[in-house]
């Protein structure tokens, strides 16, 4: 009897709150959003079409497609998506009056961190504190951290090398010894933990992502670092697009075994962060002097303590190690994939690197390779064509409304423009679907395109880790291309992707072998 009543009550609730009221609100149209074109027939009434779009796996590309000839689309009852490049400045630029949307508070932890804090003044204070640590001077000081981590990855790759591939053949399945995406994720996890917390996790020696996680009560257990991080993002990215019902949808999804497993795999993520934070804090209280972000979080340059609350410290550590790993891994997987697919560009790149590195040099020094124009062109073109964060980052108009694309958008409306859409605008990037690193080689052209090249977003909430990512990508890519040859499983093989918040990549099995590096004349 009880279950029947429960089911009946639930159905009634759903009918009233999800059907009747939204339809009334749609026709009442208090904000006048009905004049904008719908993304789908029901977008004016419910967020479900957008949740569905998100579940399809590549919402940024699909939405860009939907924007053809439509500058503004209503993607939810209170949400507008923009498809015109000029909107980037209005929504994200330095002068914008928009703030991060409620989504960030929902997916954030109990203490707002640099990434998810909404309030502008709070953000400025946090940003100022960490900017000192992210300044370019420190970056070069931390090059050795990236170098050592690169050495560890190459030591693992050396062991996985196979015999050279005869020309015009495809690798034996048993020779596909490297899942590149897996290994490069282990690399970026190690690199960011070393840079931020002076911590090494042994992942590159282990070949896997098992680490210690720690509950608030102090007990510890073993957990999968990358799986937990990815599944956490994967799960939230499906259900968060209806903010008010996020908790409800999430709980409801646990009825299904598939989602129960996803949420369970995601659970350890907060405990992984917590263990990293506690371990580093113990070293700090023991008086160990270490050179990392954590130090910048604790004391200012003059050595005066910032006296942050413990919860905030844990939050900031979470922000950095969460935002700082998979994005760079996605970029590196993508660029290696594209270069294998375009042997002519790979050859051009090798020639350029060979011109500056000695034949027996293993790790490319940053100072030697950072200004190589074709290397930078390849990295940028890969992030243009497939931005690691492709999505429209949700912002909220201020209560008094805002002008976007010359139109007045009412207050407290969720607005966004996909990074993917900006990067595939043919008026800025001719033949946007083609991988053409040479488009970046002409300085005049670069100057013209750069305002619309926004893989790290732009404005006051743009990425603080941009330079660190270039440091990692540049050293890693130059070193890999100099030392190895690679082959994909075959000409028909494709990389799979699933867009959570970032564009997660599937496996990339490759065969690798050592190159014969011609001696310099
Ligand atoms: C290719 C690599 C990377 C890409 C594509 C990328 C992309 C982005 C994007 C698009 C944003 C804006 C997010 C939003 O508005 O919701 C962002 C913010 C942020 N990123 Fe990155 N990122 C990368 C690497 C890194 C690294 C290496 C770090 C850490 C060292 C990092 C730390 C952060 C932080 C802390 C923020 C928040 C900044 C703020 O709100 O003030 N990112 N990133
Ligand atoms: C939006 O959807 C409604 C149905 O809910 C439809 O009547 C209307 O024509 C659509 N508007 C546009 C601009 O497509
Ligand atoms: C649209 O905004 C509303 C509230 O402003 C939010 O609840 C909803 O999750 C958003 N949906 C999308 C698709 O961004
Ligand atoms: C990155 O380095 C450049 C100088 O090369 C500097 O102008 C810029 O502010 C730095 N960006 C960040 C986010 O630290
Ligand atoms: C890979 O993608 C290409 C182009 O989209 C397609 O022609 C090919 O069939 C795909 N290969 C596989 C194995 O799915």
TrEMBL record:
Required cofactor(s): heme
PROSITE patterns registered for this protein in UniProt: CYTOCHROME_P450
Transmembrane intervals: 6-27
Pfam families reported for this sequence: p450
This protein's UniProt keywords: Heme, Iron, Membrane, Metal-binding, Monooxygenase, Oxidoreductase, Transmembrane, Transmembrane helix
Protein's UniProt keywords contain Transmembrane: yes
InterPro entries tied to this protein: Cyt_P450, Cyt_P450_CS, Cyt_P450_E_grp-I, Cyt_P450_sf, Cytochrome_P450_monoxygenase
Stored PANTHER family: CYTOCHROME P450 (PTHR24305), P450, PUTATIVE (EUROFUNG)-RELATED (PTHR24305:SF172)
Protein name: Cytochrome P450
Organism: Penicillium salamii
């Amino acid at each position: 009897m009880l279950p029947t009543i429960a089911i009946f009550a639930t159905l009634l609730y759903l009918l009233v709150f999800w059907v009747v009221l939204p339809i009334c609100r749609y026709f009442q149209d208090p904000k006048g959003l009905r004049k904008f074109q719908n993304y789908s027939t029901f977008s004016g009434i419910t967020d479900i079409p957008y949740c569905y779009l998100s579940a399809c796996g590549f919402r940024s590309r699909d939405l860009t497609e939907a924007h053809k000839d439509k500058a503004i689309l209503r993607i939810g009852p209170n949400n507008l998506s923009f498809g015109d490049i000029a909107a980037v400045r209005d929504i994200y630029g330095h002068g914008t009056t928009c703030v991060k949307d409620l989504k960030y508070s929902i997916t954030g932890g109990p203490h707002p961190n640099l990434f998810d804090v909404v309030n502008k003044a709070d953000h400025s204070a946090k940003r100022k504190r960490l900017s000192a640590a992210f300044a370019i001077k420190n970056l070069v000081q931390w090059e050795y951290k990236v170098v050592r981590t690169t050495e560890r990855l190459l030591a693992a790759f050396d062991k996985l090398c196979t015999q050279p591939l005869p020309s015009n053949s495809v690798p034996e399945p048993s020779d596909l010894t490297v899942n590149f995406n897996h290994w490069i994720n282990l690399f970026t996890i190690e690199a960011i933990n070393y840079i931020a917390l002076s911590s090494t996790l042994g992942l590159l020696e282990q070949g896997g992502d098992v680490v210690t996680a720690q509950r608030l009560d102090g007990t510890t257990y073993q957990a999968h670092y990358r799986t937990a991080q990815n599944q956490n993002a994967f799960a939230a990215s499906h259900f968060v697009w209806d903010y008010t019902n996020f908790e409800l949808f999430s709980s409801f999804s646990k009825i299904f075994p598939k989602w129960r497993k996803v949420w369970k795999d995601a659970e350890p993520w907060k405990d992984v962060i917590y263990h990293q934070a506690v371990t580093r804090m113990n070293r700090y209280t023991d008086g160990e002097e270490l050179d990392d972000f954590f130090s910048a979080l604790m004391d200012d340059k003059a050595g005066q303590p910032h006296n942050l609350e413990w919860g905030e410290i844990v939050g900031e550590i979470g922000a950095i190690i969460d935002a700082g790993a998979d994005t760079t891994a996605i970029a590196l997987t993508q660029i290696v994939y594209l270069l294998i697919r375009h042997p002519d560009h790979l050859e051009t790149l090798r020639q350029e690197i060979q011109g500056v590195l000695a034949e027996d040099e293993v790790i490319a020094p940053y100072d030697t390779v950072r200004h190589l124009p074709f290397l930078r062109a390849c990295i940028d073109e890969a992030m243009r064509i497939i931005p690691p964060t492709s999505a429209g980052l949700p912002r909220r108009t201020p209560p008094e409304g805002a002008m976007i694309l010359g139109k007045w958008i009412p207050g407290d409306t969720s607005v966004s423009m996909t990074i993917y859409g900006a990067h595939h605008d043919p008026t800025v990037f001719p033949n946007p679907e083609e991988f053409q690193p040479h488009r970046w080689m002409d300085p005049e052209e670069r100057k013209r395109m750069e305002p619309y090249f926004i893989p790290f977003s732009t404005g006051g909430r743009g990425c603080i880790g941009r330079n660190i990512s270039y440091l990692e990508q540049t050293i890693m890519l130059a070193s890999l291309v100099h030392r190895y040859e690679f082959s994909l499983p075959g000409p028909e093989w494709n990389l799979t992707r699933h867009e959570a918040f970032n564009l997660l990549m599937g496996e990339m099995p490759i065969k690798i072998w050592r190159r014969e590096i011609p001696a310099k004349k």
